[in-house]
Specification:
By secondary structure, the chain is α+β, with helices and mostly antiparallel strands. It has 3 domains: 28-227, Histidine kinase-like ATPase, C-terminal domain (Heat Shock Protein 90), CATH 3.30.565; 233-392, Ribosomal Protein S5, domain 2, CATH 3.30.230; 413-541 and 607-641, Rossmann fold, CATH 3.40.50. Helix content is 36%, strand content 21%. It contains 20 helices and 25 strands. The strands form 6 sheets. It has an 8-stranded mixed beta sheet. Strands 11-12-15-13-14 form a 5-stranded mixed beta sheet, with helices on both faces. Helix 13 (436-445) links the parallel strand 18 (429-434) and strand 19 (451-456). Helix 4 (43-62) packs parallel to helix 7, helix 9 (291-310) packs parallel to helix 11 (353-373) and helix 13 crosses helix 18 (590-598). It is flat. The termini are far apart.
């Protein structure tokens, strides 16, 4: 304050007193700052509303009182969640003198998750969930089957519109919640069935024996799936590995508990070169891992090295690294504990150190026992790790060779790279361009202050079928690695990244799509942080140019072409609109390429994001992996979606 006063002597100091403190009554706070409670008001926040209600039903399942949950998208993007749990309490809550049902849906931090034995473990927002969903819904209705009666209560934007009342009799127990998200709060209120289906499938895997029905009841979109996995996370591992070739038939399953905490781990190795570890705490996905993953990784490395020494598979000082031990591994880790400590607002990482110890102990004891009892599987897993170790050493030698070569030649950047003048990576862009012809036009048309161009030629290596040692020195990939400057795999260091926009610019045809997919496979497998941080984009070149008189418009699809054509004709259907088709990037001159695809003011870029790592892994394995039959089935099932492949 004093510094501001010195800079502006005429400023009158503003007293900061009690009147400045704003008290938001009831659920006003949620509507004022929805992002604080559900992360965002975008699609992820919209779907988060459903998760919060389902989490309450899952908590009933964890407590042993619920085995059926139904999630439905109704017409008008209304959500209905039904369970056969005990039903939300309807008696009077002592502190407020109001029915517990009302308190749960109108008071923040009210619920059965704060002690008193309501729930030992829970994955919801610790009593926040139901009231937040209510606050952010245009309307919400809840019906509780309990004590032989059906109790109903209705709300609108968090306010009560119908007090709790008995509307009928029942012979079952459970809760039904129906709500419509508030369009005043969300950018879009249209639910995506696949997003919800994926989450419900996860919950079914994580809660063995619980039946979850996911259904879309919207007219013209009707579909549903009933999911129940008696094998729990064992079946989750099998599901993830369905397009891969397992190295051993049996999924290895281990579990254990201590006090009120428990952990279960399922794993299986396959013949790929990639690891997939998916972890959960109290049924909440922890994409950034945490203590449970740390305990697993440390114990796995120790157990495999000890097994190799004991059985003379590792000689002398030889050992395999953690990275070697995880090559080709698919693993699901699920822990449940009373007081889960999640790091960050989005619960991306588990912080409870006791879970590291618990998981470490389970793996140390039970994996060692399994390998001793199944020596063929033990030898197969260790040989896989030893092969990975040799490949890693070969990759290190290749890497060192390239570094020495660059040092001797005194040139660290690839010869075809046309670099930009700006040195702040946050302000720079690298266009990876298909072909020398388009590369030439891009170099001439670019803004050299911040845009760099790297032309590629020919088909590059499919890294889905190659180890890291085959990538270093590859004449198609090495220029990309060198230009980006951040390394590869576990050595990737995004602080050394030379560009924060990496834009793939390929023709809008089959060959261009293939090149784009090959590059994305490479980034996903060996430069994952590029995608995680949102640095990778695909340029979207236009397909058509429409001209009437002095007016010129661009269209990026046939539908857009027809719409623009009609707009240009206006009230005169017979007016002549010239429509020309762009054939390829290489056939555009520098001016056209700049105007249509590179000018930040007019271009269209698509950011490559990854909501679901498991789904991304599955698709890359399916499309780029060794197995032909699953790829053929996928193409046959989805061919109708691929229109105009020859553009």
């Amino acid at each position: 304050m004093s510094e501001q006063m010195q800079n502006n002597p005429t400023q009158v100091e503003h007293e900061y007193g009690a009147s400045e403190i704003q008290v938001l009554e009831g659920l006003e706070a949620v509507r004022k700052r929805p992002g604080m409670y559900i992360g965002s008001t975008s699609s992820s926040g919209l779907h988060h509303l459903v998760y919060e209600i389902v989490d309450n039903a899952i908590d009933e399942a964890l407590a042993g009182y619920c085995d059926k949950i139904t999630v439905e998208i109704l017409d008008g993007d209304v959500i209905r969640v039904t369970d056969n749990g005990r039903g939300i309490p309807v008696d009077i809550q002592p502190q407020t003198g109001r029915p517990a049902l009302e308190v749960v849906y109108t008071v923040l931090h009210a619920g059965g998750k704060f002690g008193g034995g309501g729930y030992k473990v829970s994955g919801g927002l610790h009593g926040v969930g139901a009231s937040v969903v209510n606050a952010l819904s245009q309307w919400l209705e809840v019906r509780v089957h309990k004590n032989g009666h059906i109790y109903e209560m209705k709300f609108s934007r968090g306010d009560i519109t119908q007090e709790m009342k008995i509307i009928g009799d029942t012979d079952r127990t459970g809760t039904e919640v129906v709500f419509k998200p508030d369009p005043e709060m969300f950018e879009d209120t249209v639910y995506d069935y696949e997003i919800l289906h994926k989450r419900m499938r996860e919950q079914a895997f994580l809660n063995a024996g619980v039946h979850i029905l996911m259904a879309d009841r919207r007219p013209g979109r009707e579909q549903e799936e009933s999911m129940c996995y008696e094998g729990g996370i064992r079946e989750f591992v099998t599901f993830i590995n369905k397009n891969k070739t397992p190295l051993h038939d049996q999924v290895i399953y281990m579990s254990g508990s201590r006090d009120d905490s428990m952990a279960e781990i399922a794993l299986q190795y396959n013949d790929s070169y990639n690891e997939v570890i998916v972890s959960f705490a109290n049924n909440v996905h922890t994409p950034e891992g945490g203590m449970h993953e740390e305990g697993f990784k440390r114990a796995l490395t120790n157990v495999l090295n000890a097994y190799g020494k004991k059985n003379n598979l590792l000689k002398g000082e030889d050992k395999v690294s953690g990275e070697d031990c995880r090559e080709g591994l698919t693993c699901v880790i699920s822990v449940k504990l009373t007081e889960a400590q999640f790091e960050g607002q989005t619960k991306a990482k588990l912080g409870n150190s006791e879970m590291r110890t618990l998981v470490n102990n389970i793996i140390s004891d039970k994996l060692e026992q399994f390998l001793e009892e199944n020596p063929a599987v033990g030898r197969t897993i260790l040989e896989k790790a030893m092969m990975a170790n040799r490949a890693r050493e070969a990759a290190r030698r290749a890497r060192e060779s390239i570094r020495r070569k660059n040092a001797l030649e005194g040139a660290t950047l690839p010869g075809k790279l046309a670099d930009c003048n700006e040195r702040d990576p946050a302000l720079t862009e690298l266009y990876i361009v298909e072909g020398d012809s388009a590369g030439g036009s891009a170099k001439q048309g670019r803004d050299s202050r911040f845009q760099a161009i790297l032309p590629l030629w020919g088909k590059m290596l499919n890294v889905e079928k190659a180890r890291a040692d085959k990538i270093y020195g590859n004449d198609k990939l090495q220029p990309v690695i060198t230009a980006l400057g951040a390394g590869l795999g576990d050595e990737f260091d995004d602080s050394k990244l030379r560009y924060h926009k990496v834009i793939i610019m390929a023709d809008a045809d089959v060959d261009g799509s293939h090149i784009r997919t090959l590059l994305l496979t490479f980034f996903f497998r060996f430069m994952r942080p590029l995608i995680d941080r949102g640095y990778v984009y695909a340029a979207v070149p236009p397909l058509f140019k429409l001209t009437r008189g002095k007016t010129t418009r661009l269209a990026f699809s046939e539908e857009e072409r027809d719409r623009i054509s009609a707009e240009l004709r206006g009230d005169n259907p017979n007016a002549k609109v010239d429509i020309s088709r762009f054939k390829g990037l290489g056939e555009m001159d520098a001016h056209e390429l700049w105007d249509t695809t590179m000018n930040p003011e007019t271009r269209t870029l698509k950011r490559i994001t990854m909501e679901d790592a498991v789904k991304a892994d599955e698709i890359f394995t399916l499309l780029m992996g060794e197995k032909v039959e699953p790829r053929r089935e996928y193409i046959e099932q989805n061919a109708f979606k691929a229109v105009n492949l020859d553009y």
